[in-house]
Amino acid sequence: MKISLITSFILSGTTVVGILLPIQSIAQTPAKVRFYCGQTFDPGSDAIVPTTLVASSSKREPVALIQWKSKISGKFAPQVRCNTVSAKFQQGWEAKRLNYLTAGLDKASGLGIICGVKELATPCDRASMLFTLANGADANETLDRINTIKAGTGSNPIPQSSSGDSVVDIDWIIN
After folding, report:
1. 134 within 8 A of 163, measured Cβ to Cβ
2. Closest CA to 156 of 70, 71, 43, 58
3. Helix, strand or coil for residue 132?
4. Are residues 165 and 84 part of one domain?
5. 116-140, pLDDT tens digit by residue?
6. Selection from 88, 166, 161 nearest residue 127 by Cα
7. How far is CA 56 from CA 50, 51, 168, 173, in A?
8. Does one domain contain both 100 and 125?
9. Same domain (yes/no): 91, 111
10. What are the pLDDT digits (tens) for 48-73?
């Protein structure tokens, strides 16, 4: 009798564990993330503009990160910049090099840059650069504005036509 009771308990316990383990692994599945170039409305110009967006399986709606409104140094049209930078975000994410956004200065041009890095100790330079800012734009201020988008105190993506060491945790934006 004791043996059959212990066997029943062990079998029941195995069944319960067998049911709980898959549920736990589902809960720990990382969010699927996609950075892409889409379009959003810019109330300042009353126009639809190319925008770098991030969609995540943990959010209902994509998050608009950067609105591309003007050419930098007259070289790249907003749509080209949006496509190029959105692809850099996605490539960095897929290569697991995009844990943080950091600010830096491109020594060749003297312009502010935003970088995607795996670790905070990684320098923000041309190797980790996601995009160059407009002349006169402050890179740390740009990161602060990205943080306000996620925090809910900012309602619009960063317009890249305007102008302390800031860091943006990408997981904070995605989740």
Report:
1. yes
2. 43
3. strand
4. yes
5. 999 999 999 989 999 998 888 889 8
6. 88
7. 19, 16, 17, 9
8. yes
9. yes
10. 999 999 999 988 889 899 999 877 76
What count of other Cβ atoms lies within 10 Å of the Cβ of residue 170?
A: 19
Q: How far, in Å, CA of 19 to CA of 71, rounded?
A: 56
The pTM of the whole model exceeds 0.85: no
Same domain, 54 and 26: no
Tell whether 25 and 37 lie within a shared domain: no
CB-CB contact of 82 with 48 (8 Å): no
Identify whether the C-beta of residue 62 lies closer than 8 Å to the C-beta of residue 49.
Answer: no
Count structural domains, the chain: 2
* Residues 72 and 136 grouped into a single domain: yes
Residue span of the structural domain in which 112 resides? 33-174
Examine the domain organization and report whether 11 and 50 are in the same domain: no
Q: How many residues does the chain have?
A: 175
Residue entry with tokens 């050419």: 71
Q: Indicate the SS3 state at residue 65.
A: strand
